[in-house]
Amino acid sequence: MFAVFSVLVLGVAAIASLTIRLLRPRFAHHWLLNTAACLIAWVLALLTRAQIPDNLSIFHWQPEVLLPSTPTLIIDHLTASYLLAVISLAAAILLTEVKRPRPGERPGGRWFDLFPVIILTGVAGLAILAGNLIAAALLWTLLDLILLAIVIPRARNKEESESLVLAFGLRILSSMLLIWAELLSNARGYSTTLTGLHPSIAPLLLTAAGLRLGLIPPHRPLPEIQDLPAGLRASFWLTPAASALIILTRAAQSGSAQSSGWLLFLAALAALYAAFSWLQRVAIRDGLPFWLTGASSLALAAAARGQANASLAWGSVAILCGGLLILASSRPRWITPLLLLGALWTTTLPFTPTWPGVTLYSLPFQPIELLFLIIQGMLIIGFLRHALRHSPTTASAERWVWLVYPLGLALLPAAQVMIAWWSRPGASGGLPAWPGWVESSISILGNGLTLFFISLSFHRARGSPRFVEHSAAMLEFNGLYRLLWSLYHGVRRLTRWVGWALEGRAGILWALLILALLYSLLIQLGMTG
Is residue 300 a contact partner of residue 206, using CB atoms and an 8 Å limit? Predict the structure, then answer.
């Protein structure tokens, strides 16, 4: 129950913050209230590990004819790990927010920059705890509604509104895929619990999670909002992704390696574009979506090969290392070791917390995995470039700020260590054994060669080499999507013209003519068939 209590604490804090905002608009301690609640939730998330396995029914369907299964929550090794990751990210966002005050404001940010972080983390935590397919679909939809409420007031023009509609349309489609998997499992007599899925259902789950992560098809999973502050941007991109990353790991647990080869190809395409774009980004706020896509593609590839622990390792890297990089906006020299620690986690070297990630390259080795080796190396290079880039510091900050700020950043690598400790061999739900030295050697050799050749190209070009820019442009899918969008507008104009023609005085004649043409076409098809 500690997991449920941690989510409830965040929910109560969000309601209290909203109530105080309505009753006392000048209340100046929202940061203190939300940070205290988030730290309490973080402690409860740590204690969750002592209570697994556990499950809880949310409510019962009435009537049961609609769907025989009732939404449930489950607490196991995976939910404890991802719950700790998202709550650690929220705590880090709130603690580091003291370093990003606006002119004339107190440290801690504004209310409407803090409230979405708490509410997103609470609902994403519930989605992580989903115990069956119907619960996951319902909580995904709730999370999308909250994201929509955050984004709608910030959309400024027609293009942003259209990208918003497209992104959330694909997210709704992913929820529908979960419902389809639920109906299919019920029809075939399979289990609908996420811990006992049939392998034939796994490709549907991988596709649904890939849609939400922007991998299938390669696209931006959320609309781009320019004026989001760093903390809210990190929560906006990384927190909802955790609810999809855990579905990838659930699919890997069910045995998804038999029928998901095509997903590896699509994930590799998305990851290549993301990795090349990640290398070009000067500002981390612009590169965060590409980091998430690249790291998530490695989690999907591991899940498609049936490697649940590797998928968990890469999912935690996507959330925690990405959060560490974007939140370290002010970088004195003594912050650099924390960032280099995050870079070390992305290497999956032996005895690092992400070592289980190398099982992605376990035997039998497939040729497409060479692409993922190169992609991992490119992600490491981009991470190092951002980590070592000089960033101005604020000398006028109070002393207590310099105590709280590094503490918030340190929570993220600490959470990575805790997740690795929970995943060690012999632990409940952990690894059956440490990764083998064959896949570890493949990872070290592949990443080493990638680091050498790309670093050499960067050194000679003194910046982003041309082949990186050209490769990103060749892999860009925006042209195809613009073509599809133009076709959609053409069909819409044709539909409007047909409606205008049928609504006129000659509408009946047009309708009769179209019916006659369709009738004659059907007769011809029947005669020739």
Answer: yes
